[in-house]
Write a sequence for this structure.
């Protein structure tokens, strides 16, 4: 009896995460995940989820998971109820994002288990069979008795149940500094440390890593709205729900580095576009973006084989590129060889616009798991000139811009031609293959180099966004309140 009660208490506090406080969306953004971690010299306060058990600790600390504390149990779901976000109930609750009407909502799904739980899946199956319940009702109860051990410099250990709230003026992880609220959890035998912060703070920590902190104001604002819209769209995929946070801090979601490289211009760009996201009709837009299209952006349909989306259907970025049909070999090669004015561009913009590299024929074969390369045929290019399909040796089909970039040792983009055979569809490569290309990234959505060009030429951020995400409008009313 006591054990069943213990399991219920712990599972109901396990999962996350997001919440709306005073009309602002607060997120859990992952900062670090590891089997153990060290905190540098500092003053920290650790509290359990109830806030009743707190300890202040100073100096260097090391954090680990108590060995053998992890006990997997299998339970049988009795019923699932959808509720509004609420306090912990006697159930396992899963918090997730959804889009209803024109609003983002945070929902809670409560899973109520039969009181019996089992050490093996076979025992759970036998019990389900006896009750006449289908096996799909059996679920592993995620965390039982997880204990986090925090050891101070003197070697004295303190024990906490996951999750643990951390209060600290500053939290250093590696060479990056974070300020605010933090939470430490055990998720799937790993320690997970997250920052809990308002969406707007998160966006301010994303912009400098994405477009640079000394960009013109209208480009910073365009990036703020694109990054905010992208974040909201990512939340709706709930793809980190099992990891114990809402968004990760790497390119998988968006690169977030806390206060690193932040300045007053970034604060201004975020506050002057506060809460602005792009929508089509009542739906939030998938506002993906990339470094440099190279002339024209591509459609999400061509690049990712998705449905046709008017807001991601491709746009003209550099006006001179309109003279070339980049989906043809001659058009692609001629445009790559055409000089583009790079005055006022920073070095990263220039290198994202024009590049050249080479690869040994043997290395390419190795990357593709082939014994040799005798021929390369360019089968298909997108509107942006990106190669979408190659046929190697007449037998090996290579599809998708990312796979093509990978095969050639991670090219900046798949918009390139073989320098010895410009304009040719079929190439019989020599010992070393030279490639000339333009652009960086997948080519869908906003082009950052193009956004910078337009901002320098006097465009407003709304015009910039309209270029890359046509047929969208900006709204600030999208967080669901009691009375929207
Ligand atoms: Zn991610
Ligand atoms: Zn561009």
């Amino acid at each position: 009896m006591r054990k069943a009660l213990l399991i219920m208490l712990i599972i109901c506090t396990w999962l996350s995460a997001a919440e709306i406080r005073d009309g602002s969306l607060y997120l859990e953004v992952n900062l670090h995940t590891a089997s153990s971690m060290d905190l540098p010299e500092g003053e920290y306060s650790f509290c359990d989820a109830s806030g009743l058990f707190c300890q202040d600790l100073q100096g260097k600390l090391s954090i680990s998971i108590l060995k053998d504390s992890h006990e997997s149990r299998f339970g049988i779901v009795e019923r699932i109820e959808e509720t509004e976000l609420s306090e912990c109930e006697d159930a396992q609750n899963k918090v997730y994002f959804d889009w209803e009407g024109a609003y983002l909502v945070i929902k809670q799904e409560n899973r109520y288990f039969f009181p019996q739980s089992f050490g093996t899946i076979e025992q759970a199956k036998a019990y389900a069979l006896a009750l006449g319940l289908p096996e799909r009702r059996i679920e592993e109860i995620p965390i039982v008795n997880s204990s986090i051990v925090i050891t101070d410099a003197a070697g004295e250990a303190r024990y906490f149940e996951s999750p643990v709230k951390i209060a600290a003026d500053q939290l250093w992880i590696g060479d990056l500094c974070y300020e605010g609220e933090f939470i430490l959890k055990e998720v799937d035998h790993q320690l997970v440390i997250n920052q809990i912060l308002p969406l707007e703070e998160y966006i301010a920590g994303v912009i400098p890593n994405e477009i640079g902190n000394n960009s013109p104001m209208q480009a910073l604002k365009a990036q703020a709205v694109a990054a905010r819209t992208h974040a909201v769209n990512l939340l709706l995929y709930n793809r980190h729900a099992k990891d114990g946070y809402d968004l990760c801090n790497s390119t998988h979601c968006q690169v977030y580095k806390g206060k690193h490289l932040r300045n007053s211009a970034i604060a201004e760009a975020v506050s002057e576009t506060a809460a602005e996201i792009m929508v089509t009709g009542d739906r939030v837009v998938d506002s993906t973006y990339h470094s440099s299209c190279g002339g024209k952006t591509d459609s999400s349909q061509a690049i990712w084989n998705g449905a046709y989306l008017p807001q991601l259907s491709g746009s003209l970025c550099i006006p001179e590129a309109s003279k070339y049909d980049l989906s043809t070999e001659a058009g692609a090669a001629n445009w790559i060889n055409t000089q583009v004015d790079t005055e006022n561009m920073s070095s990263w913009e220039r290198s994202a616009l024009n590049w050249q590299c080479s690869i040994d024929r043997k290395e390419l074969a190795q990357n593709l798991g082939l014994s040799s390369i005798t021929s390369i045929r360019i089968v298909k290019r997108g509107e942006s000139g990106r190669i979408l399909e190659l046929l190697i040796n007449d037998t090996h089909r290579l599809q998708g811009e990312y796979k093509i970039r990978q095969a050639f040792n991670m090219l900046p983009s798949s918009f390139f031609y073989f320098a010895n055979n410009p304009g040719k569809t079929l190439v019989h490569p020599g010992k070393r293959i030279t490639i000339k290309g333009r652009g960086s990234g997948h080519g869908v959505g906003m082009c950052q180099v193009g956004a910078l060009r337009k901002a320098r030429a006097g465009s407003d951020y709304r015009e910039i966004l309209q270029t890359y995400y046509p047929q969208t409008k900006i709204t600030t009313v999208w967080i669901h309140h009691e009375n929207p």
